[in-house]
Write a structure and sequence with these properties.
The protein is of the alpha/beta class. The protein is 41% helix and 15% strand. The strands form 4 sheets. A 5-stranded parallel β-sheet has the order 13-12-11-14-15, with helices on both faces. It has a 4-stranded mixed β-sheet with strand order 1-7-6-8, with helices on one face. This is Asparagine synthase (Glutamine-hydrolysing).
């Protein structure tokens, strides 16, 4: 279905409603929840969504992490024109059609922050700042310290969301998992495999796609992971020569320049491109994005702005950044995974896939925020890094009965290709990515 356009003199909605994955209500009911201005009703929307609705001179927008949503206010003699879209280039193309593109710069676009109901008033110059109401406000440290119980609850929440997704898919459509053999993609694959058996679905529909750029470690890790569980028949290694890795194309796709996100997205782009070449009709892909953020599993030492106290004391720091009311929050890009999820979302979307990232869903994040990280780690970095594997392994055992392997953490761009090759494929300085992105708009 084509994107839904509702041009009403001062508002253009370019979002495609078919890309929402809403489990518990119709799109119309979800839109009514957003229009209600009641954050509690928006929180009741179960799934991955980006919704905008206009009421009089007010526009209300809400999104989960799983779908990006941007907007831009253009000037007209009759008043402001608001364009809402998934992508920056969609906004620019629309402005060109209207002869308004000279007003445009990508930094003037705004990303709707995940987990907030955003309200805009279309009342002319100067444009008022958006107002934010948090609709997702999970409580921290509410679970006790029993790792078995935590794991069962966390992976149980993951399985519940995956089950809803599976129920909504066409009966015989194949399902691919972007798979490295790591904890996040591994747990998503095992949960889907378990659920498909439990639901009477053919597991032959399932496949684990692993990227290998001239002998990266992930291919070996993925094989070891599945061999240990006698599931190696599901593995499909996708070989890509280094000369086909193109970070410039990826920057055009993700419309961002953060080094780690560009590098990860470049590998995801290569994998999705090759899957599409092999399987022209494949549609559904799942991934483990969000698992690191949920378990606060990033090396704090690599970021001089962070301490273990800031990570453990700030609600959803890795999901949202420092927060919409903080100076460090980027209006153009949002923060945390609210910004960074385009690394995983945009490449599959570009190649016509429908992707599903269950770890980014609020019902799963809510459980992870309830974990008593401070009690379990006593502010120790190494204890924090070890906790993710412990919890997920125990949860997979409780939910599926399987003993999941857990290998040391490795970023996608560091596992898909040998280390020396990775250094050749990417720029040393983020400014290279910034300058290239800026050049796209002259």
């Amino acid at each position: 279905m084509a994107a839904s356009h509702h041009y009403v003199e001062d508002f253009e909605n370019l979002l495609d409603p078919d890309l929402n994955i809403i489990f518990n209500m119709s799109l119309e009911e979800a839109e009514a929840a957003v229009l209600s201005e009641d954050p509690r009703r928006v929180r009741e929307i179960d799934g991955s969504f980006a919704i905008v609705k206009k009421k009089g001179r007010e526009v209300f927008m809400a999104r989960s992490i799983g779908r990006p949503m941007r907007y831009f206010l253009a000037k007209q003699a009759s008043g402001p024109l608001l364009i809402v879209a998934e992508r920056i280039d969609e906004i620019y193309d629309y402005l060109k059609q209207k002869g308004l593109h000279e007003q445009f710069h990508p930094s003037y676009t705004r990303m709707v922050p995940a987990h907030h109901l955003t309200r805009l008033q279309l009342i002319g110059c100067p444009d008022p700042s958006p107002e934010y109401k948090r609709y997702f406000d999970p409580r921290q440290n509410v679970l006790d310290g029993d790792l078995d119980a935590i794991g069962a609850r966390y992976i149980g929440a993951l399985a519940a969301e995956c089950q809803k997704w599976l129920k909504g898919l066409p009966e015989k459509e194949p399902i691919g998992v972007l798979f490295s053999g790591g904890i996040d993609s591994g747990s998503v694959f095992l949960v889907l495999y378990h659920l498909m058996l439990e639901m009477g679905m053919s597991p032959q529909r399932l496949k684990a796609f692993t990227l290998s750029v001239e002998g990266g470690k992930d291919a070996q890790q993925a094989a070891r992971f599945l061999d240990q569980l006698d599931l190696s028949l599901f593995l499909e290694v996708v070989d890509v020569p280094a000369e086909e890795i193109d970070y410039k194309k990826t920057i055009r796709i993700v419309e961002d320049y953060k080094s780690l996100d560009v590098e990860a997205a470049t590998m995801t782009e290569a994998l999705c491109r090759k899957i599409r070449e092999r399987y022209p009709d494949w549609k559904y892909l799942a991934d483990g994005d969000g698992g690191d953020e949920n378990m606060k599993d990033y090396p704090i030492e690599e970021n001089p702005e962070l301490t273990i106290r800031s990570v453990l004391n700030n609600q959803m720091l890795y999901h949202e950044g420092w927060g919409v009311d903080k100076i460090k929050h980027s209006l153009t890009y949002s923060g945390g995974l609210s910004r960074g999820h385009v690394r995983t979302y945009a490449p599959p979307r570009y190649y016509g896939f429908t992707s599903f990232s269950p770890y980014t869903l609020p019902n799963v994040i809510e459980v992870s925020e309830g974990i008593p990280f401070i009690q379990l780690t006593d502010w120790d970095h190494e204890e924090l890094y070890a906790l993710k594997g412990e919890i997920v392994q125990r949860g997979i055992k409780a939910v599926t009965g399987m003993d999941m392997p857990a290998f040391p953490k490795r970023r996608l761009q560091h596992g898909a290709a040998p280390e020396e090759k990775t250094e050749e494929l990417f720029a040393e300085d983020e400014m290279v990515y910034r300058r290239y992105f800026s050049s796209l708009y002259g």
